[in-house]
Amino acid sequence: MTAQLITGISELTTQAAETSHDDDRLLDAALVIENGRISWIGPAAEAPAADTSVDVGGRAVLPGWVDTHTHLIFAGDRAAEFEARIAGQRYAAGGIATTMAATRSATSADLIGNARRLRREAEAQGTTFLETKTGYGLDLASELRSAQAAAEVADVVTYLGAHVVPPGLDRRDYLDLVTGPMLAAVSPHVDFIDAFCETGAFDVEESHEVLLAGRAAGLGLRLHGNQLGFSGGVRLAVELGCASVDHCNHLEEADIDALAGSGTVATLLPACDLSTREPFPPARRLLDAGAHIALASNCNPGTSYTTSMPFSVATAVLQMGLTVREAVWAATRGAARSVGREHGPDAVGSLTIGGRADLQVLDAPSVAHLAYRPGVSLCLATWTEGVRAARTQPGF
Ligand SMILES: [Zn+2]
Questions:
Q1: Please, is 264 exposed, middle or buried when counting C-beta atoms within 10 Å of its C-beta (0-12, 13-18, 19+)?
Q2: What is the pairing mode between strands 387-388 and 379-384?
Q3: How far is the CA of 161 from the centre of ligand 1 (A)?
Q4: Ligand 1 center to residue 163 CA distance, Å?
Q5: What's the gap in Å between 70 CA and the centre of ligand 1?
Q6: What's the CATH number of domain 3-63+350-388, 3.90.1640.30, 3.40.50.720, 3.30.460.10, 2.30.40.10?
Q7: How far apart are the CA of 216 and the centre of ligand 1, in A?
Q8: In what helix (H) or strand (E) does residue 238 lie, and over which residues does it extend?
Q9: pLDDT at 22 exceeding the cut of 70
Q10: pLDDT 10s digits, 116-173
């Protein structure tokens, strides 16, 4: 058993408290990692002896990012569509079919290779735990292949057969496939089921049917809702007890009240809102009402082609009215809650004695720098389950 001491931490954000309102910063801190777990946290001056020691030289340490909304299983890109949209065309759900065609014609090795490339990119920016989805295959064989590829790359996998109805297919026939043979095929490889509840994709009734089928197959529930309008997705998600409802740009008071009175996390995707030039979700109102929020990258080739959680955190602070601590909480512990990994031996998004040693070192003395210095790459090193990523900078 090897004990590794990390000391010289100017500010240690543990996220051990139950809410983002509690200040659980430790200044001049140290921690010890043993067997992938944290075995000690406390003042640097009281740190115990260890087999090896790293002095991070007065820098901030916090949990690794928990990115709970990505679509990494795809081929091709949609830069031309992006340029057209930036030049004035409005985003509609139809571009998904473009990625579907490229994904179907790619090999499994290509799909896995591309997703791994993006995961490495995310890790270099501090992500240590990541969800990804199917949803660009949209026929049985391609969704199964996507689910298998996702399980190779991600920590949590979501089945999104209900992304859009593929061109040329009858809606009813496709829903029967998604909730029947396709679901049966992917179920062994996935943790959650999801649906894109939006104009141009699936309505509330159809999304309801998809989620109930997933629940019957033993999957957890999440939903894309209220991105482009008042789709009714948020209320459906709360009614069904979804772990998360994602996007939440257009919310009525009743939606906010419903979220506040529920265990459903509102996962907000600010990088997507910037890329599509859509209004940001009312994050401040959600928090003030008592709702739980998470932040995620929504990395996908259409509407948010970034893996950067620091970018999402900075945007949430600078554009959505969150404090730095609220945004960091939402991108770590709040995100863990949205995938059912907030508590227990497999918990992520917090640093506690006995918990997983998933952490990052910033090249800055405090987490405030994440928003104070937007666009600057501050992640200096990460440890995932106690193992330091080889690709991060030495420097200390
Ligand atoms: Zn999405």
A1: buried
A2: antiparallel
A3: 12
A4: 9
A5: 6
A6: 2.30.40.10
A7: 23
A8: helix 233-240
A9: no
A10: 999 999 999 999 999 999 999 999 999 999 999 999 999 999 999 999 999 999 999 9
Residue 263 alpha carbon to ligand 1 centre in Å:
20
Distance of CA 270 from the midpoint of ligand 1 (Å): 12
Q: Give residue for tokens 């770590």.
A: 332
Cα distances from 9 to residues 309, 326, 362, 389, 393, in angstroms, run: 22, 21, 10, 19, 17
CA of 39 to the centre of ligand 1 (A): 36
pLDDT tens-digit readout, 242-279: 999 999 999 999 999 999 999 999 999 999 999 988 99
Q: What pLDDT, on a 0 to 100 scale, did the predictor assign at position 48?
A: 96
Residue 174 token pair: 């496709």
Q: Hunting for tokens 């990625």 — which residue is that?
A: 99
| Amino acid residing at 11 | E
Give the distance (Å) from ligand 1 centre to CA of residue 392: 28
Picking from 98, 105, 71, 63, the residue whose alpha carbon sits closest to that of residue 84 is 98
> Would you say the CATH fold of 66-338 matches that of 3-63+350-388?
no
Structure confidence by residue, pLDDT tens digits, 194-233: 999 999 899 999 999 999 999 999 999 999 999 989 889 9
Residue 344 CA to ligand 1 center (angstroms) comes to 27
Q: Which fold has domain 66-338?
A: TIM Barrel (3.20.20)
Residue 143 Cα, ligand 1 centroid: separation in angstroms? 16
Continuous segment of H or E residues that includes residue 4: strand 3-13
Which of 191, 232, 234, 233 is CA-nearest to residue 68? 191
The candidate with the shortest Cα–Cα distance to 298, out of 155, 164, 122, 152, is: 122
At 65 the three-state DSSP class reads strand
- Distance, CA 303 to ligand 1 centroid (Å)? 9
Rounded distance from Cα 346 to ligand 1 centre (Å): 25
CA 295 to ligand 1 centroid distance, Å: 12
Q: Which residue ranges make up each domain of the chain?
A: 3-63+350-388, 66-338
Distance 85 CA to ligand 1 centre (A): 18
Coil, strand or helix at 361: strand
Ligand 1 centroid – CA 298 distance (Å)? 6
